[in-house]
Amino acid sequence: MNVNKVLLVGRLTREPEIRTTSSGQSVASLSIATNSFWKDKSGQKQERTEFHNIVLWGRLAEIAGQYLVKGAEVFIEGRLQTRKYTAKDGTEKRTTEIVGENMQLGAKPQNRPYTPNVPANNSASAQGEKPQEEAIPTINLDEEQDEVKIADVPF
Q: Which tens digits make up the pLDDT trace of 35-82?
């Protein structure tokens, strides 16, 4: 049996980059940071930050472009994928990224509320009305003191 599954909860390190392929499919590239904490042998608290490159396709990419901003917390479920590309200097490179298959929005970034990035041709804005805000579920792991307990994770 083979398994290729990744589950991450982290914060965006930059704004998502949204592109459209020549066939018209949306693709989003984003990066998230995850932290792990532990105590070393001397009892000192240690921390390590890992950075992960994520690729989202289709409707998931469009949602990421609408709602995700730098600093936002997000849950990503997906798979690892390695691809080759040619760098600007002509050398062949390899990169491993996570292809997201599921996404949940987490806690709002501090001092930056979630507001959909609605295109300017939205009918509500054309009529001078204020667009309706959607209720967005949040996951707030910032309140955790030590480790995250599996029983406390809502998904």
A: 999 899 999 999 999 999 999 999 999 999 999 999 999 999 999 999
Domains along the sequence of the chain with CATH? 6-38+45-143 (2.40.50.140)
Nearest by Cα to 55 from 38, 31, 71, 74:
31
Best CA proximity match to 34, nearest among 17, 53, 18, 15: 53
pTM of the model: 0.67
Instruction: Say if CB 74 and CB 106 are below 8 A apart.
Output: yes
**Contact, 56 vs 66, CB < 8 A?**
no
Strand-pairing partners, residue 50, are 34
Inter-CA distances, 99 with 17, 79, 116, 136, Å: 15, 5, 23, 23
